[in-house]
Amino acid sequence: MSEEYIKGSGKGRGGWRGGGRPKGTTLNRGRIEKFTRCITPEEKEYLEQCLIEYRKKKEQL
Question: Which residues contact 11 (CB under 8 A, 6 or more apart)?
Answer without folding.
Answer: 5
